């Protein structure tokens, strides 16, 4: 029966069944045509109602006809190809036809039933239509039954194919694990054939409900019951694409049996298999995206393998890497959609995507390997990273890891030179420093392998040139680093490069070497500070620089210090200690260090060295006590307490019969550039500070100036020239001495000259210059800040005294609030000696006089009059330049009853651009005085 006849039959059935309804109600103006699914649902609901009525009245011929007719109509509607409800159709038609036969038999044997039914025209018409369509309904029922059988047959064929494919995939995996790659390829051909067969089975007959039950017609949600414009089998496709994805994965694994030599043809096959899976609408799978991405990645790596620095190779590989990244991103999106597979592959997918997205993915992974003590593996990973991302950071970090791993330094040098020639590397700090380190290490290893004494003149020239290049690069690194923390790393290697060079040429640059040697304690302290603040993984390059600094100390100490000094041995031991803390080692240096030094010092023949260590510790102990005592006298109790605490710890460690604790690094940190000179500086400065504390300002200044002006005597102090004082300040290169000089100049100027005197002003200016120089020296070295905590605090207060008159005002106001007027006045007078032009200090002094007047007996008229006189003198001298000064003058006039003068002063305060608080005060006093003046 054709589609048109089927539709016509349905229309006739609907006309018969809905005729009573249309007779009772007017037809709608524009009735929307019901969809096939809506017709099925409506027929099913009518059938349920008819079933209930028939169950209540099983012998009522009218109810039986209704029930039969709805069964047949539901069967007709459900058989519509647009719905494919073959099970529902077959069942309804079978039951409807049986009921029609039963009704026909009963009507033939019982005429009274025929007469009863004839009285209802609508039901009679239904029965007639059913009898007319009985043959067609029987044919349709047979057809739907055949469709059900075909569905079952298709399911059996698919199940058989799935079973065969599962076995083949399992066999492929086993063969791969056993290394029988030829068998894997043979089995893969069988998988391809079975996949083709599976698709043919699916294509024979498209059935939407092949792998799912037909929807219930009485369900609340009818979303599945809809017109099927494209019959699909999603579960079937999922299985097929899954098998294809596994086949693609196996092809990729075969291509990567030897990761160092991947098979290009096999990679292309894996990539193509994955691409075919992804073309299918339901083919998006985690495995397919992963295989496609990784295959494209490997194909791109092949193009950059020859020379990862070459820009042309990267340009050719760019499309492959872009495709790889896009597919890995889609694979990551599939992780949550496929939780079973996603759980196994999540880390792999995310790691590969991170590496393809940014060079940081490679840098982070390599840093973890290096931190774990495997720099060689880190270098291999960075080599691969360079094939993907042509960036300087990967090249430079790879060179560092190859140095750490002890790989071929000549190859590393060549790689860096190619990077420079290809303009990949620039003249930035990191590039310059890494290149210098490679040159430095390569030269040292060549010297070490054959021994300096066996180096030929030609080789010596080549090595000297190489070390000179390293020194030039490191000097450039120091310039580029500027005041950054990285400058200490550059200086450490700079010193080591010169130390190595002096082994070949002992006459080389004595002045430069001594300067570098003297700066190494600061470099060491700053590097240690950076190590303490850094994360564990970030400590490795800092520790390497610290090793370089300690080695440089050792070599240069041998060259520049007297023979009896022990710094060289101690420095080498300290270098060994730092090297032992690195996660990798290129030598047996971990066997040495402070334990070796302690053992050497315990030998009888080394008692002199042991005594030198004890003497140094005791000298430092006494210095802490003396400096702490002076700090207390100068009013810096907190810093003094820190100094005393350090001294007490030394007392505990150097008691009678105790052996000093041996720590090579700390022994080096305790030495100054020259022990004798440093001791003299500390002793002289302590004398200066003690004389100042005892108010012996002449003698204090004389001692402070003597290192720069040795011929000066006490009679010349009052006539010091600016040039002489400037010379003294500039020659003070040690913060303790510089602070003492600044304090001596300040106290002498305040005590010996009138406030505002030209000589006093010049001396105070030089005092401030000395304190700024002290601050600069302290900022340059954490070692000095730790060594002199009291100078850090005292210097800060000195700069505040000499630059900020408001600091005196703040302190005086606090004293006034505590009714300590005399102390506030004394403090303000000290401020005036240092800042004779400060009007704010003069105003505060007047307020102190007002406070004295309020506290005096009899109203303090004498004090107020004296204060007014002083204020008027200031005004006449032209020093009143702000609103606050006029407010003070107005307040004095008002207290003495001079209302007109007070009004005039407050008006001038308003004219002098007051701040908000002063404006409000002036306006309020004017309002009060105006009100009082009116009758």
Structure, explained:
By secondary structure, this protein is an all-alpha fold. Helix content is 76%, strand content 0%. It is built from 41 helices and no strands. Helix 9 (234-255) runs antiparallel to helix 10 (264-279). The radius of gyration is 50 Å and the shape is flat.
Summarize this structure briefly.
The protein has 935 residues and is mostly helical.
First and last CA, distance = 123 Å
* Helix fraction by DSSP (H/I, runs of at least 4): over 70%
Global morphology? flat
Name the structural class. mainly alpha
Detail the poorly predicted runs. Answer: 1-15, 18-25, 227-236, 587-606, 657-662
Q: Counting H and I runs of at least 4 residues, what is the number of helices?
A: 41
User: How many β strands by DSSP?
Assistant: 0
């Amino acid at each position: 029966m054709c589609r048109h006849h089927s539709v016509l039959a349905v229309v006739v059935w609907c006309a018969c069944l809905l005729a009573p309804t249309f007779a009772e109600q007017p037809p709608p103006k524009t009735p929307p045509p019901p969809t096939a699914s809506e017709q099925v649902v409506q027929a099913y609901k009518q059938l349920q109602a008819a079933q209930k009525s028939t169950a209540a009245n099983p012998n009522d011929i009218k109810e039986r006809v209704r029930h039969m007719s709805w069964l047949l109509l539901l069967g007709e509607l459900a058989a519509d190809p647009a719905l494919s409800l073959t099970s529902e159709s077959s069942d309804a038609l079978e039951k409807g036809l049986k009921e029609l036969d039963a009704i026909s038999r009963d009507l033939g044997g019982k005429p009274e039933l025929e007469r009863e039914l004839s009285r209802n025209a609508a039901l009679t018409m239904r029965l007639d239509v059913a009898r007319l369509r009985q043959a067609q309904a029987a044919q349709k029922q047979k057809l739907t039954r055949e469709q059900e059988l075909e569905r079952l047959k298709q399911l059996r064929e698919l199940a058989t194919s799935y079973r065969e494919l599962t076995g083949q995939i399992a066999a492929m995996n086993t063969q791969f694990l056993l290394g029988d790659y030829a068998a894997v390829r043979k089995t893969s051909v069988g998988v391809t054939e079975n996949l083709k067969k599976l698709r043919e089975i699916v294509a024979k007959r498209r059935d939407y409900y092949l792998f799912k039950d037909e929807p219930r017609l009485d369900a609340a949600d009818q979303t599945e019951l809809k017109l099927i414009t494209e019959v699909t089998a999603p579960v079937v496709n999922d299985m097929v694409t899954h098998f294809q994805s596994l086949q693609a994965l196996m092809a990729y694994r075969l291509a990567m049996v030897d990761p160092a030599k991947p098979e290009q043809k096999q990679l292309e096959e894996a990539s193509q298999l994955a691409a075919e899976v992804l073309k299918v609408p339901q083919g998006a799978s985690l495995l397919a995206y992963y295989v496609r991405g990784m295959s494209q990645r490997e194909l791109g790596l092949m193009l950059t393998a020859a020379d990862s620095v070459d820009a042309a190779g990267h340009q050719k590989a760019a499309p492959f890497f872009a495709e790889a990244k896009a597919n890995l991103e889609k694979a990551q999106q599939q992780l949550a959609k496929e939780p079973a597979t996603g759980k196994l592959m999540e880390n792999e997918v995310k790691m590969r995507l991170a590496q393809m997205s940014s060079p940081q993915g490679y840098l982070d992974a390599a840093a973890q390997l290096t931190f774990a003590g495997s720099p060689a593996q880190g270098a291999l990973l960075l080599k691969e990273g360079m094939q993907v991302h042509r960036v300087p950071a990967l090249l430079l970090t790879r060179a560092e890891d190859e140095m750490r791993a002890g790989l071929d330094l000549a190859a590393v040098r060549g790689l860096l030179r190619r990077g420079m020639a290809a303009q990949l590397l620039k003249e930035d700090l990191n590039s310059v420093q890494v290149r210098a380190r490679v040159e430095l290490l390569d030269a040292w290893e060549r010297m070490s392998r054959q021994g300096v004494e066996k180096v030929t003149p030609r080789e010596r020239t080549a090595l000297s040139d190489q070390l000179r290049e390293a020194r030039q690069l490191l000097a450039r690194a120091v310039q580029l680093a500027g005041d950054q923390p990285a400058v200490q790393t550059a200086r450490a290697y700079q010193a080591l490069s010169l130390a190595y060079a002096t082994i070949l040429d002992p006459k080389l640059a004595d002045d430069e070497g001594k300067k570098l040697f003297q700066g190494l304690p600061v470099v060491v302290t700053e590097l240690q500070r950076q190590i303490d603040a850094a994360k564990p993984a970030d400590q490795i390059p800092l520790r390497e620089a610290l090793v370089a600094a300690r080695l440089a100390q050792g070599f240069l100490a041998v060259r520049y210090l007297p023979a009896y000094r022990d710094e060289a041995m101690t420095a080498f031991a300290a270098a060994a200690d730092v090297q032992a803390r690195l996660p990798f080692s290129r030598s047996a240096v971990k066997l040495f260090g402070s334990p070796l030094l302690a053992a050497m010092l315990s030998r009888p023949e080394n008692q002199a060295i042991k005594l030198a260590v004890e003497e140094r510790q005791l000298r430092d102990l006494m210095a802490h006590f003396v400096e702490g005592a002076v700090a207390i006298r100068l009013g810096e109790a907190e810093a003094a307490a820190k100094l005393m605490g350090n001294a007490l710890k030394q007392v505990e460690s150097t008691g009678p019969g105790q052996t000093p604790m041996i720590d090579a690094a700390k022994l080096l940190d305790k030495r100054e550039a020259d022990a004798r000179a440093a001791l003299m500086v500390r002793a002289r400065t302590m004398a200066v500070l003690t004389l100042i504390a005892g108010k012996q300002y002449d003698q204090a200044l004389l001692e402070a100036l003597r290192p720069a002006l040795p011929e000066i005597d006490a009679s010349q102090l009052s006539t010091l020239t600016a040039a002489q004082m400037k010379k003294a300040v500039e020659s003070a290169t040690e913060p303790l001495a510089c602070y003492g000089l600044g304090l001596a100049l300040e106290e002498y100027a305040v005590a010996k000259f009138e406030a505002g005197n030209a000589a006093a002003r010049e001396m105070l200016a030089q005092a401030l210059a000395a304190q700024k120089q002290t601050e600069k020296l302290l900022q340059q070295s954490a070692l000095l800040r730790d060594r002199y905590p009291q100078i850090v605090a005292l210097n800060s207060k000195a700069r505040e005294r000499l630059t900020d008159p408001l600091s005196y005002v703040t302190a005086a106001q606090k004293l006034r609030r505590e009714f300590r007027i005399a102390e506030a006045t004394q403090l303000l007078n000290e401020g005036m000696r240092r800042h004779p032009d400060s009007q704010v200090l003069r105003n505060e002094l007047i307020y102190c006089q007002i406070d004295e007047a309020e506290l005096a007996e009899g109203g303090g008229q004498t004090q107020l009059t004296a204060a007014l006189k002083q204020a008027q003198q200031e005004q006449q001298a032209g020093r009143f330049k702000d609103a606050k000064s006029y407010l003070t003058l107005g307040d004095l006039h008002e207290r003495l009853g001079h209302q007109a003068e007070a009004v005039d002063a407050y008006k001038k305060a308003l004219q002098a651009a007051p701040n908000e608080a002063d404006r409000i005060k002036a306006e309020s006093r004017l309002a009060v005085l105006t009100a009082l003046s009116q009758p």
